[in-house]
Amino acid sequence: MEGEVLCAYSGNDICNSVFHQEGLKLALFLNVRSLEVASDFLSVTRAINKLEKPPWDCEDQFKRIWDLAYDFAQIIFYHVFRETNRAADFLARIGTDQDSSILYFISPLCRELCSIVEDDKNNKVYLRFNQY
């Protein structure tokens, strides 16, 4: 995988597709025309790729995503497993400490997150531990 990370986000929105929609808007604003979108939301990724029907209460957001996707010369949406997406855990940990429903992290990212993202790009597997 080549390229650079434009943004990352964390949030608690019921329709997780809103995060994808906002990321696409940012990429278009930055004049990016070739894009890879990696997500650990399997059902959202499958719905964006039209492999399954989106939830009825999120259909409008998926339509907006599909419309935005047409503005890219090349765009790929794919699923990544949580075990190779340490950045998601890092962002979720930060997000739970905030009152906002969504937090954006726009490049340049902090040093720790850059290191984590680089590991994720190289499919480094890590162990997740749940604390109860």
From TrEMBL:
InterPro entries: RNase_H-like (IPR053151), RNase_H-like_dom_plant (IPR044730), RNaseH-like_sf (IPR012337), RNaseH_domain (IPR002156), RNaseH_sf (IPR036397). Residues 22-93 form the RNase H type-1 domain. SUPFAM superfamilies: Ribonuclease H-like. CDD domains: RNase_H_like (cd06222). Pfam families: RVT_3. One of its GO terms (molecular function) is nucleic acid binding. PANTHER family: OS05G0353850 PROTEIN, POLYNUCLEOTIDYL TRANSFERASE, RIBONUCLEASE H-LIKE SUPERFAMILY PROTEIN. This is RNase H type-1 domain-containing protein. It comes from Thalictrum thalictroides (Rue-anemone).
